[in-house]
C-alpha cells in the first residue's frame, strides 16, 4: 500500500511540476511544449516510477548505470531514458546494451567518452544516440564537466568525428548544493551562443539542460529547454543505510 500511495503522490507532484514549467515558459514568451521535464527517479522503486508513467509521463532520468540497467527491463519500452550521471567509458557498452530505449546521455564531458559511445553505438547497430555536453559552469573542482572555454571544441569533435552521436545541446549541474545562480545559467547560455556560431547551427537546435528541483522555474525563465526534477516529484532520495 505504501508504494501505491507514493506512486499517487508522485503523479500529483508531477502534474504540479508540469504546470509550473508551462507557466514559466509562458512568462518567458515561449510555447507551452518548449520545455522537457526529465523525472529523475534515482533510488526510487519501479512501482513508484510506474505510477508516474501511468499519469502520462514518458521521460525519466537515472544517475547510475547499474540501477538503470536493473530498472529499464521492468518498465515499458516507450520510456525515453536519459542518463544524467557521470559515465565511465568502461561502462558505456553495458549501459547501451542493457537499455535499448536509452534516448540521451546528458553528461559527455570529454573526447574519450564521446569516442567510446560512438564506437559502442556502431558496434550494437543501434540508432544514433543523442548526447549533451556537460559544462562545469561553477568552476568547482568536485564537478564533472568541460570548462566553458572548451565546450565549442568538444561539440565540434562530436559533430565531425562521432557519426553515431547526435550533438543535441549543453548541460550543467550548477553549484555544489545542486542549486544554481543566474550566473551559472548565463554561462551556459553564452556557451550555446559560442557553440552554435562554431558549428553554424541555429540556437534552437542546441538544447540547454539546466535547472533541478530547487531552481527549475528560474532556469526555464532564463532559457532552459530541459529540466531535471527528482525530489520535487518523488520525494527525498532513499539511499540504503550503511552498516
List the helices and strands and how they pair.
Elements: H1 2-27, E1 36-40, H2 46-54, E2 59-62, H3 65-71, E3 80-83, H4 92-98, E4 102-108, H5 111-124, E5 129-134, H6 151-161, E6 165-171, H7 182-199, E7 207-209, H8 216-221, E8 226-229, H9 231-234
Helix pairs in contact: 1-2, 4-5, 6-7
Radius of gyration: 17 Å
CATH class: Alpha Beta
Q: Which percent band covers the strand fraction?
A: 15-25%
- For the record, what is the CATH homologous superfamily label? Alanine racemase
Distance between the terminal alpha carbons, to the nearest Å? 27 Å
Structural class by sheet pairing and helices: alpha/beta
Task: Using the coordinates shown, work out and report the CATH topology.
Answer: TIM Barrel
Averaging pLDDT over every residue, what do you get?
Answer: 93
Shape: globular
SSE string, helix = H, strand = E? HEHEHEHEHEHEHEHEH
Tally of strands: 8
Largest sheet: 8 strands, parallel
Helix content: 40-55%
Contiguous uncertain segments of 5+ residues = none
Give, in spatial order, the strands making up the sheet with the most strands.
7-6-5-4-3-2-1-8
Helical stretch tally: 9
Keywords: Pyridoxal phosphate
Function: Pyridoxal 5'-phosphate (PLP)-binding protein, which may be involved in intracellular homeostatic regulation of pyridoxal 5'-phosphate (PLP), the active form of vitamin B6.
Family: Belongs to the pyridoxal phosphate-binding protein YggS/PROSC family.
Cofactor: pyridoxal 5'-phosphate
Amino acid at each position: 500500500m505504501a508504494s501505491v500511495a507514493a506512486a499517487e503522490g508522485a503523479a500529483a507532484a508531477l502534474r504540479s511540476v508540469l504546470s509550473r514549467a508551462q507557466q514559466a515558459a509562458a512568462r518567458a514568451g515561449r510555447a507551452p511544449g518548449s520545455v522537457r521535464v526529465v523525472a529523475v527517479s534515482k533510488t526510487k522503486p519501479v512501482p513508484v516510477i510506474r505510477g508516474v508513467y501511468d499519469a502520462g509521463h514518458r521521460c525519466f532520468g537515472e544517475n547510475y548505470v547499474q540501477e538503470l540497467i536493473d530498472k529499464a527491463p521492468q518498465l515499458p519500452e516507450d520510456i525515453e531514458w536519459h542518463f544524467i550521471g557521470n559515465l565511465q567509458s568502461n561502462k558505456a557498452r553495458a549501459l547501451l546494451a542493457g537499455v535499448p530505449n536509452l534516448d540521451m546521455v546528458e553528461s559527455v564531458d570529454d573526447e574519450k567518452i564521446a569516442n567510446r559511445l560512438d564506437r559502442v553505438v556502431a558496434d550494437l547497430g543501434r540508432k544514433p544516440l543523442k548526447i549533451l555536453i556537460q559544462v562545469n559552469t561553477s568552476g568547482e573542482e568536485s564537478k564533472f564537466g568541460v570548462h566553458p572555454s572548451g565546450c565549442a571544441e568538444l561539440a565540434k569533435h562530436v559533430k565531425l568525428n562521432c557519426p553515431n552521436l547526435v550533438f543535441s545541446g549543453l548541460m550543467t549541474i550548477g553549484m555544489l548544493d545542486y542549486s544554481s545562480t543566474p550566473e551559472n545559467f548565463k554561462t551556459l547560455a553564452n556557451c550555446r551562443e559560442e557553440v552554435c556560431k562554431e558549428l553554424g547551427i541555429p540556437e534552437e537546435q542546441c538544447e540547454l539542460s539546466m535547472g533541478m528541483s530547487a531552481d527549475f522555474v528560474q532556469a526555464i525563465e532564463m532559457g532552459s529547454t530541459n529540466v531535471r526534477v527528482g525530489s520535487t516529484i518523488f520525494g527525498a532520495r532513499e539511499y540504503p543505510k550503511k552498516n
